[in-house]
Amino acid sequence: MKRFLSCLLVASLAVGCSGRSSSTSSSGNPSETSGERPSVAYVTNCVASFWVIAKAGVEKGGQEFDSDVEVLMPTEGITDQTRMIEDLITKGVDGIAITAIDPDNQIDLLNKAAQHTHLITHDSDAPGSDRECYIGMDNYLAGRLCGELVKEAMPEGGKVALFIGRMDQDNARRRRQGVIDAMLDRSEDASRMDPPDAAIVEGKWNIVGTYTDKTNFSAAKANVEDVMSRHPDIQGMVGLFAYNPPLILEALTQADKLGKIQVIAFDEADETLAGIQAGHVFGTVVQNPFEYGRQSVRVLAGLARGQSLEELGIPNSKFLNIPAEQIRKENVDQYWADLKKTLGQE
What we know:
It comes from Rubripirellula amarantea. The protein has 346 residues and is of the alpha/beta class. The chain has two domains: 2-136 and 288-314, Rossmann fold; 139-286, 3-Layer(aba) Sandwich (Rossmann fold), CATH 3.40.50. The protein is built from twelve helices and 13 strands. α3 links the parallel β1 (39-43) and β2 (68-72).
């Protein structure tokens, strides 16, 4: 976990502040007429290794699209994220990219931000808000990719537990449902919603529960320990936020159950990729947080300079899709090498 924790330390300090233009156009966006460098803020939902990769993409986008960028990572959930957005509105940045923690209850705040600056969402959408577009993946379909990995890892079915940060987020709800629907061989229906507080027993599967942790790492690990205590015959564990699989591995190691319980993952934490190499993780579904960050800067900088979504290559759906990918033992080495190259860690 040392490398994982060091990434978190880096991330918690990762707030790049820079100057912004002071001339304001009639639309309320300073750089639209001033010709100066747009100021772009990228707001995450927590501090995690996933966002360290996104931050690298934001910084690359700042260089590539001649923009001042800052990355903000809340440590205290929705309260901290709300304060950040209000501060950015006051500062008058040219654009904000946000992954909303609780989109249903943040509509007023998001719409307020959209009145003062260009607002887009990334990673997790807030479709009911006035955001201009969403950059990310289809989390329901990505969840189904993860569910297919579960089926490959456990062809006879069995007892499985799901672990995730929170269920308020749009991406979390859709991702979890995609996993369940694929495991149970259901048709595609992103509007379906199995109750998160109940076990699901269907066919050869027993999904004992969905365990949330509010992105508290101690709670996330405790959830794994609790499942092993309550369900000593548990056969599979699925970690759906980036930090969940490393904490599952840590708990299993300490309980001397590493390799005895199938682990299926989401995202590309170093511990997860190393676990695939070692045979302790069956596979993971990876996003492309680097491109989430880079594309967010590209789009917001373009909007601040007066370009339209169409000119920026955003479809009429207002969804810029950056597809997910399954990683197994046969392709993990190449994937990890490519990721390190992208991050300049060769």
